[in-house]
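TICKET: design request
STATUS: open
ATTACHED STRUCTURE:
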């Protein structure tokens, strides 16, 4: 991976981290409404509870991804970034573009059952 490619990746990871942080803030706002903004009646309350469990799930997924991205961001300057941890071959750049936090190539991931 060239210096330029790494810089492009850094930028892309930064953007994804920012987007996820914004999403998390929105989910948190939905999960913990301010006083007076909460459900007004029983039906609204039930819907709120249902929605809440979906939001909690989304929040969990987004937090996991955010942590993986932050971790990838710290790894990007290391010479082994973008190399598969199993076979040590370079992970295809297209895959890294979609998932910069990838630790394995697709073949190894399938083989490891990840
Ligand atoms: Zn591999």
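STATUS: resolved
RESOLUTION: sequence designed for all positions
ATTACHED SEQUENCE:
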């Amino acid at each position: 991976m060239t210096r330029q490619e790494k810089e492009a990746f850094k930028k892309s990871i930064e953007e994804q981290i920012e987007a996820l942080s914004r999403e998390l803030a929105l989910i948190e706002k939905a999960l913990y409404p301010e006083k007076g903004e909460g459900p007004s009646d029983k039906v609204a309350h039930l819907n709120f509870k249902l929605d809440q469990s979906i939001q909690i799930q989304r929040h969990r997924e987004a937090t996991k991804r955010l942590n993986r991205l932050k971790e990838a961001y710290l790894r990007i300057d290391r010479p082994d970034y973008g190399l598969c941890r199993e076979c040590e071959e370079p992970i295809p750049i297209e895959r890294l573009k979609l998932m910069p936090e990838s630790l394995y190539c697709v073949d190894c991931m399938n083989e490891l059952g990840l």
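CLOSING REMARK: Helices lie at 3-31, 42-75, 93-98, 106-112. Residues 3-80 form one domain.
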